[in-house]
Amino acid sequence: QVTLMESGGGTVRPGESLRLSCVASGRIFNIGIMGWYRQAPGKERELVASISGEHTTTIADSVKGRFTISRDNARHTIYLQMNSLEPEDTAVYYCNADNLLYYEGDFVRQVFDSWGQGTEVTIYS
Predict the structure, then answer these.
(1) What does the angle CA 59 – CA 36 – CA 111 come to, to the nearest 5 degrees?
(2) Strands across the sheet with 3-7, in order?
(3) Which residues, at least 6 apart from 42, have a Cβ–Cβ distance to it below 8 Å?
(4) Spatial contact of 51 and 57, defined as CB atoms under 8 Å apart
(5) Which residues pair with 3 in a beta bridge?
(6) CB-based contacts of 65: which residues, under 8 Å, 6+ apart?
(7) Distance CA 23, CA 25 (A)
(8) Torsion over CA: 42, 114, 8, 30 (sign)
(9) What are the C-alpha distances in Å from 15 to residues 7, 18, 35, 57, 88?
(10) How far apart are CA 26 and CA 112, in angstroms?
């Protein structure tokens, strides 16, 4: 079994920063693309940023220049550095892992589209 656990959310004022972390725990063999999604109240979940194992990144236009995604493959961890936060960034932020391979006994199992529980980010004036 593998779990994704986010941390680092909180309540801040506009212009401030937060750093989110997501750790994949378990007997991991390899993880493909990992990413951050967010879902604001009453809205659909949207991609914020993603990063491959080779550190190729994709950043949503709405956060480009303010948010940075990074990855530590050895620790199976991704980060989202969020600067110059705006009220529109208020949402629950979810970690996602695509094509996650993990050991189960003598076998390697494959899971597509794994999700964490989410961490809440609130920006208030």
Answers:
(1) 120
(2) 3-7, 18-25, 77-82, 67-72
(3) none
(4) yes
(5) 25
(6) none
(7) 6
(8) negative
(9) 20, 10, 23, 24, 12
(10) 15
Residue pLDDT tens, the chain, 125 long: 899 999 999 999 999 999 999 999 999 999 999 999 999 999 999 999 999 999 999 999 999 999 999 999 999 999 999 999 999 999 999 999 999 999 999 999 999 999 999 999 999 98
Beta-carbon neighbour count of residue 123 at 10 Å?
20
Greatest Cα pair distance in the chain: 53
- The pLDDT of residue 1: 83
The one-letter amino acid code at 104 reads: E
